[in-house]
């Protein structure tokens, strides 16, 4: 049986315009994640810039697998609040599947 890997929504948000819409988004997002066993791993923490350019807030959400991630993002509850964020911030969001703890960098060469 193939082990399903955890999946992550990673956001890099900039120019977040705090106001009633963002506050409502923040107040409601956790309830949209709950049915998909999703939770924040990183949420707006101050990032130490080591390389390149960075101005923004990092956000990482973890869910059990890629299907849960896609289902959460496409859920009516999340789609209802999504414009509250996208209309009040600039940024990039990506989805990515994780690797297991035994993964080595050279595994991508196979």
TrEMBL record:
Residues 6-99 form the DUF1330 domain. Gene3D superfamilies: 3.30.70.100. It comes from the Bacteria. Pfam families: DUF1330. This is Uncharacterized protein (DUF1330 family).
